[in-house]
Amino acid sequence: MDEVYDVIVLGTGLTECILSGLLSVEGKKVLHMDRNDYYGGDSASLNLTQLYRKFRPDQPPPAELGRDRDYAIDLIPKFIISSGELTRILVHTDVTRYLEFKQIAGSFVFRDGKISKVPSTEMEAVRSPLMGIFEKRRAKKFFEFLQNWKDDDPATHQGIDLDKDTMKAVYEKFGLEPGTQDFIGHAMALHLDDDYINKVARPTYDRIVLYTSSMARYGKSPYIYPLYGLGELPQSFARLSAIYGGTYMLDKKIDEIITDPATGKFLGVRSGKETVKAKQVIGDPSYFGGGTSGASDGGKVRVLEEGKVIRAICILKHPIPGTDNADSVQIIIPQNQVNRRNDIYIASVSSTHNVCAKDVYVAIVSTIVETSRPEQEIEPGLALLGPIYAKFVSVTPLYIPTSSGTEDNIFITRSYDATSHFETVVEDVQDVWKRVFGSDLVLKKREVEVTE
């Protein structure tokens, strides 16, 4: 192989596939390689056989679960915020033509030992057990303040400076109770922990506005989800890349990342006896020493301080109790409710989304690991599911690159975090893009279609 590419992309996770698609559209000559024989890397959706092979290699899937091909079970559960950045990228690149989306039926929050729906209409808010009557009035004033805020009109600021005042100060201004703060910060702003309270209010304001505008877009919940599972997302971006001339090689072992001995700069990739050259490489951490990589790492990735994420994929024969038999939900357990530092997330989908057989539900419980007994940490989440037919648990380290990559032309993405949506994945895409090109990724706006 004497061809020289502009960029070699290693791994077909969603982050890498989005970058590959965007680079190909920009006219770059891209070679995309993956050691697996399926798309998606860590963010793949597996059929039953693949799922059992990964977690229980010595056990075939039970026949009563039905046909293999009816399943597409996500390894990493995340929903798409309908007005969020991933939607903008999907629409901008026209990748939406390969995908069909369905709404997630409801968003719930765990409070005082039970789950309650996050209100999606004013009527639901009035009836919601999440707040007492006086607190509802205070919360209404808080949301009206957010809705009416205009940066250039001080009359709408009520003496608050979103870029200087902390979120704590904003909550106190409206006299909101700790339980309401929990619900707003975790179920709407979708913060993983309470660190945000003592930081400036602007990012939380932006997050709440994103949540409410997404909620208003289709009603019911702010989330959409692709039919046939999240594995469809990387495949669709791979298709986009291929249309613009990108080359794909699956099931290709990466034996060596070749660098110039004198300068340390990236030269190419070796697979067996073949070597491919390129000016730059973009890859997930597993190709650079993160996890069970065969490639040499040279200290290019490190584990984040918060360390690891635990995820339990649970197969159920019933909808989650207390969700009004919803075919899909997100449930957030704010950390304060269970004396933790990080929230626990539950994402559930069903045959309505073409990811499992009829009358089967898939619920994935996840959180950031805080102790030496991770499975015990997700117990509050598992307890909400009712009887569990089968459970597959993984504990994954969170890796980030140790350098920007501009010195050696090796650009490494981050591991997928514990958040329940794709906004941080897009932040990583934007970050890598800026590192590669030295300028921001700019997208235009179009509309996305959702099937009811």
UniProtKB/TrEMBL annotation:
GO molecular function: Rab GDP-dissociation inhibitor activity
GO cellular component, one term: cytoplasm
InterPro entries: FAD/NAD-bd_sf, GDP_dissociation_inhibitor, RabGDI
Gene Ontology biological process: protein transport; small GTPase-mediated signal transduction; vesicle-mediated transport
Superkingdom as given in the UniProt entry: Eukaryota
SUPFAM superfamilies according to UniProt: FAD/NAD(P)-binding domain
Family statement drawn from the similarity comment of this UniProt entry: Belongs to the Rab GDI family.
This protein's name: Rab GDP dissociation inhibitor
Organism whose genome encodes this protein: Hydnum rufescens UP504
Lineage: Eukaryota, Fungi, Dikarya, Basidiomycota, Agaricomycotina
